[in-house]
Amino acid sequence: MTHIKRIAVLTSGGDAPGMNAAIRSVVRRATQFDWEVFGVENGYRGLIDGNFTRLGMRDVGNIIQLGGTVLGSARAPEFKNIEGQQEGIRRLHQQGIDALVVIGGNGSQTGAYALGTHGFPVVGVASTIDNDLYGSEITIGVDTALNVALESIDRLRTTASSHHRAFIVEVMGRDCGYLGMMAGLAGGALAVQIPEMEMTPEAITNLLVEAYERGKKQSIIVVAEGCQHDVDELAAYYKEHRAEIGFPLRVTRLGHVQRGGVPTAADRLLATRLAAGAVDALQRGESGVLCGLHNNQITLTPYDIVVNNKKTLDLSLLELARDLAM
Ligand code: ADP
Ligand code: F6P
Q1: Taking Cα atoms as reference points, which of 13, 7, 95 lies closest to residue 55?
Q2: N or C terminus: which one in the chain shows less Cβ crowding within 10 Å?
Q3: Atom of ligand 2 nearest to the CA of 15
């Protein structure tokens, strides 16, 4: 049991489709416990500035289906310093807040861990399209981003077929290849380039040459944004060797389109479950943990484990994508 009467919730880092479903779930679960909830605007920046707004159950009506975050988000480098963190805690105390729920990715949860080390109760909700956060097999926003990337690849494939072209498609993921690997596998790409296992531009070009010689009418190459041999290098290499490669080539960077729009059912469900799980943890008196999902079960992972471990990719899926590309 707990002494909590008032909590705050913030969204931080890159926004992710499903964050609003998570905010709604936090507010309504806490309301069931007769707690007051305050939303913090714009992540840790709003925390440092003391931008709190009271959120009642009606304030989070009609947002479950919206992408982005109604609270706003920010990259706030000033929160990486101890002074910023202490100011955040001072603001929380000033507002009479007993505990904080942090909805965000790797960096945001590192910030939450820092608050915990200063003695403030925090529970995290795993949310980033990159799926690079240790402590949850899948994070809020990944499913939507993957589906957006896939729809784009499908659309590019139709025009590629008409013109007998190859397309390089760049997907997001910061330095993690999860989105690239899954979009490549589900999109039937000829080549998948991710930071965890890169191919040289020459190897990718050879795949294109062979595909053309086999009579393939179009080809898709998925490249994750964090690669050393990135889209620009691949396109430059292609230009130099254009004469040897049958396919004309076009480049498409999907960029922030992957973070926008309506969250999928999977993301709304995940967000709703994880956020309620975070509030339930606080109600049981637990904090200093990240609420995530493993084997479809809600789990709580201590923050020191979350921040000191790196999530690994199942590279057998990359091999499968490469094996099936013929
Ligand atoms: P994400 O949470 O999506 O990974 P960022 O890495 O940009 O996004 O982190 C979001 C915010 O979390 C940062 O702008 C900063 O306010 C805070 N943050 C990131 N890293 C740290 C850190 N090492 N210590 C404290 N706060 C951090
Ligand atoms: O972390 C989510 C993400 O979309 C990454 O995939 C990408 O590298 C980064 O954010 C882009 O950041 P910004 O929105 O600040 O340009």
Answers
A1: 7
A2: N
A3: 2
Contact 129, 141 (CB under 8 A): yes
CA of 194 to the centre of ligand 2 (A): 16
Instruction: Quote the ligand 2 centre to 302 CA distance (angstroms).
Output: 25
* Closest among 71, 63, 126 to 275, alpha carbons compared: 126
Pocket lining: 179 vs ligand 2, CB cutoff 6 Å: no
140 lines ligand 2 (CB under 6 A): no
The per-residue pLDDT for 22 is 99
**Which pTM value belongs to this model?**
0.98
pLDDT, residue 1, reads 57
Judged by its nearest atom, the ligand closest to the C-alpha of residue 110 is 1
How far, CA to CA in Å, does 52 sit from each of 38, 41, 42, 44, 123? 6, 7, 10, 11, 18
Give me the helix-helix angle, 106-117 and 82-94, nearest 10°. Answer: 70
What are the structure tokens assigned to 202, written together?
A: 């020459």
Domain range list for the chain: 6-141+263-307, 144-260
Q: Whose Cα sits closest to atom 19 in ligand 1?
A: 107
Told to judge if 314 belongs to the known catalytic residues of this protein, a careful annotator would answer: no
User: Position 195: which residue type?
Assistant: P
CATH number of 6-141+263-307: 3.40.50.450
Identify the residues whose C-beta falls under 6 Å from ligand 1: 12-14, 44, 75-77, 79-80, 104-108, 110-111, 114, 128
pLDDT digits (tens, 9 = 90+) for 220-263: 999 999 999 999 999 999 999 999 999 999 999 999 999 999 99
Ligand 2 touching residue 128 (CB < 6 A): yes
Q: Which two tokens stand for residue 31?
A: 């309301």
Residue 102, H or E segment: strand 99-104
- Whether 6-141+263-307 and 144-260 share one fold: the answer is yes
Q: What parts of the chain have a pLDDT lower than 50?
A: none
Q: Could you tell me if 170 and 225 are in contact, meaning their C-beta atoms sit under 8 angstroms apart?
A: yes
Q: Tell me, in angstroms, the distance from the centre of ligand 2 to residue 75's CA.
A: 10
CATH number of this structure's domain 144-260: 3.40.50.460
